[in-house]
Amino acid sequence: MNKEDLKRDFILLNTGYAYHNADWNWKNVHSPFVRIHYVKNGSAKIIREDGVYELKKDHLYLTPSYITHAYECNDILELYYIHLYEDSKKQISIFDLINFPVEVEANPLDIQLIKRLIAINPGRELQYYDPDSYDNSATVAYNMALQQKSPIAFEMETLGIIEQIISRFLAKAVFKNEQIEERILKSLQHIHKNMDHPIDIEDLAEICFLTKDHFIRLFKKEMNCTPGKYINQKKIETAQLRILINDTNIKDIAYGLGFDNISYFNRLFTKITGETPGKYKKRMQL
Questions:
Q1: Block mean pLDDT (10 aa), the chain, length 286
Q2: Burial class (CB in 10 A: 0-12, 13-18, 19+), 148
Q3: Would you say the pTM of this structure is higher than 0.90?
Q4: Sign of CA dihedral 61, 67, 94, 278
């Protein structure tokens, strides 16, 4: 895998400063967007399946998209936040390839960069801190419209700042496998490029010049899940993002992702997200 395989564009959604007094308490946050927090002062916790993280002053915290988590705050907390959309352009998410640390110590430049990010992106502050109030169609559409209106110089500077902040985590990140097996990487690229079509396991095996059984075993060894489970997970994540960003009915989204059975799509969506596509869309359009 070379450096070109890891380059991604990130679109800024929200950034700002927040002061909390035991009021940063949210459960079951499951967002299509990446969150970065810089702790200026105070204490709180980010709770994830892989552990509980006590927030520390002058540290940065990264929560990738689709990571179910919770926030717990029983005292004063001052922090800066950055919310991002990873525009993967049908590539594999960088978070599927690399294990990023949750926490890194910030350096003195980071707070200056974040303050500059806020200064050149006015109007991106959160009005309310309930995740349901900003992870919704109207807010995302508004923020993307602001991004399109941003002067090109500020847009370039914004991307540069975001890359610098993410580089703090990347410096201490590790590949999920030191080197993903080349054939499996090829199959992953095929999956993401063909997300809008039915994806057959036998076709993936053929691309890799393997038998179906051998391919499934190798995929599971490299990715810690079966190819079928991976494909379903990524299709439903794509469906979540399209429901959020596009004003498209659920049936068209399902067909657009290669599902020819709407009932199956609905069952799969509910199994993976914990709610029906209809309920998810209604909540996102509040």
A1: 66 95 93 94 95 97 94 97 85 86 96 97 90 76 77 93 95 76 88 93 94 94 90 91 82 94 94 89 74
A2: exposed
A3: no
A4: negative
